[in-house]
Structure formats: C-alpha cells, structure tokens
Amino acid sequence: MNTSEFKFQTSDKKVENLSVTWQTPSNIALVKYWGKSEPQIPKNASISFTLNNCHTITSIQFNRTSESSEADFELFFEGKKKDDFKPKIAKFFKRIQEYCPYILQYKMIISSKNSFPHSSGIASSASGMSAIAMCLMSLERELNSTLSDAFVNKKASFLARLGSGSASRSIEGPLVVWGNHPEIKESSDLFGIKFPYEIHPIFENYQDTILLVDKGEKQVSSTVGHNLMHDHPYAENRFIQANENLEKLSVILQNGNIKAFINLVESEALTLHAMMLTSNPYFILMKPNTLEIINKIWKYREKNNSNICFTLDAGANVHVLYPHSEKTEIELFIKNNLAGFCQKNQYICDSVGFGAKPL
Ligand code: DP6
Question: Which of 85, 209, 234, 284 is deepest in the core (most CB within 10 A)?
C-alpha cells in the first residue's frame, strides 16, 4: 500500500506559535467496520452518515521548542487536565510521526470538549481523533502553503484512521465510505471518501435520534472486540457479507428504495452484535432496554407503515433513523413511547451533517 504521498516533504515557512480550533462530528455506520489488521486496515469497507449535533471541539496551541524524540503535549478535557486519555493520544502521535515529523518540534496544548454528555456511551473517538487530525493539518498547511483543500481532507482522514478507524469517516459528509471496494470508485483502506454518487432526496437530511440506554463504560472496548474477529469462526463470511451489503446499499442510496434500506441497515446492526455474541470470549453489549426499544420500533413501523428503523454501534444505545418527512410523528412516538427506556429519559436529536468545520 502506497502511503508515500502522506509523508511531509518540505516547509516553505517557519511557524513559531499557532493556535487552531476545529469542530468535527461523530458518525454512525450503516455498514459496519468490525475487524481490522495492522496498521488500522479494515477487513471490509464501511459507510456512515456523518452527524451534525454530536461533535467534538478541539483547540491545539502549538509552541515551537527544540526537537524531541517523542511528542510533547498536555491534554485538557472539558477544562480539566486529563492524564488518563494521554496514553491513547501518545500512541496516536507515535503512529503518525513518520507522516508528520514536525509535531516533534512543538509543545502542544490540546483542549477538547464534546457536545454530547460525558460518558453517554456515544463513541467519542471518531470525533476526538478527527478533530486532532484537522488541527495538525492546519499547522501542516501553515508550514507548506501549497497544500490543496482536497489533500488536507484526505490526509486528515488518513491520520484520523491511525487514531481510530471510524474517525477516518468524520472529516466530511453526508455519507463517507472507508475501505477499498471495487464498486466505489476512489475508495481506499487508507482514508475515507465522500460517497461518490448522487444520493436520492429521501436520504437527504436524514434524522438520527440517539436513545441513551446505557451511559456507563462499555464492558468490552472496540479495540478488544475488533481483535476477537481474528479467530472468529464466522469472520471471513462476515467480511464478504459486509462488502456485498455496501454494494447493495450504494444502489439503494441512489434509487431511494427505503424498505430495502431499512432491511439492510437493521440487519447490519444485528449482525455486528451477533459477531460479539459468537466471539470467544463472547460478550453482550445490548441491554434489556435495547431489545425493548427494537421491538417497539418494529411494532410502530408495522402499525403505521412508517419508515422508522434502528441501528446500533458497539454499545447499548439505539440510533433511531428516519426520513425528515416523518420527523413530527416519529419524534412524538420517541418522546411518548421510547424515552422511558432511556437512562433518565435522555436522548439526543441529531441529523446528517457535512463534516469538519474550522472555528
Ligand atoms: C461498531 O473505530 O471505535 O462503531 O479503530 O479500534 O478505534 P478502533 O475502533 P472504532 O470501531 C468502530 C466500530 C463500530 C462500527 C463502525 O463505526 O463502523
């Protein structure tokens, strides 16, 4: 795999101090990434909706110092020093050092906050890592003014991927594909790309209401879960199925066949959790209320001929997906019939968004 284009070449300018701030979103996968090989190469291609309201805002203050052998940084989360997040970020910096050697010449003060409640079970690694990647690319652009917007986004996604796979899908929107797939032109295992075909209007401004079923720390991290796909008896078939599903979904997103969309997206969510149930050691991230909600959604859909559906990420929370045209009645259904299954009745109303923004 050719990564040479991502190696920093030359600077045309010296930068002593720089302060940058980026807002980057979370995303929700429709075809799931579950299983990877070194270095952060997915076993199958995935696709996600970029979210709008769930985001991270990260500022980095870069101050030039003498060059050191490892990245020198301080980390603040929601105003407080957060040393327990440091090892993950240190590992990320180590991984990207060969592509961004300039980071070793700066002391970096990183300050981050999320728009969603702390430990809500919403994956913050996607928005968190993509925000750091965008900040680094702002410095890179100061050092080399010839970089194009397209290259900046591509390298930001490449870097974010090395921090967290799903983060590669949090730079752009509304739909991003990550992972090489023969039917998706320009797709790559190294970075995410915008879904390259015209999307049917029904999928524009799609809604995602995130039901916070369980806000606690996950018992099994994504990293451990991905690793358990290595000796998994169904892994190879799952990777084939995911790539086939992406091909089918690509057609659906263009032709607007929403019933097929619902079927494929729910099947992907349940298959992801089926992989967890059949791992060794096995584990369950869904909670009783996750299943209560799924059953209520199915009943409501049947009774009202609705286009509501759900997906899950690696946790107990339920993402309720629906077209904008059904927003009023589905929001009422969520408020009256589903909120009671959430911790403290909490849920987050979100919709499809368009990616990273400088602040
Ligand atoms: C279930 O991106 O969190 O949300 O690469 O180890 O950081 P790492 O994993 P991560 O895995 C996300 C898994 C998922 C599915 C998805 O987003 O595609």
Answer: 209
Side-chain half-sphere CA neighbours of 174 within 13 A = 16
Counting from 1 in the atom list of ligand 1, the atom nearest the Cα of 36 is 5
* Per-residue pLDDT reduced to its tens digit, 61-81: 999 999 899 999 999 999 999
pLDDT tens digits along 258-291? 999 999 999 999 999 999 999 999 999 999 999 9
Nearest CA to ligand 1 atom 12: 166
* DSSP result, 200-221: PGGGTT-EEEEE-S--SPPSS-
**Could you give the CA distance from residue 193 to residue 99 in angstroms, rounded to a whole number?**
19
Nearest 5°: the CA angle 136, 142, 148 is 85
- Cβ–ligand 1 distance for 313 under 6 Å, the answer yes
pTM, two decimals, is 0.96
Q: How far apart are CA 59 and CA 18, in angstroms?
A: 10
Residue ranges and CATH numbers for the domains of the chain are: 1-359 (3.30.230.10)
Pocket test for ligand 1, best of 222, 224, 265, 277 (most atoms within 8 A of CB): 222
CA torsion, ordered 87, 91, 94, 97, to nearest 10 deg: -110
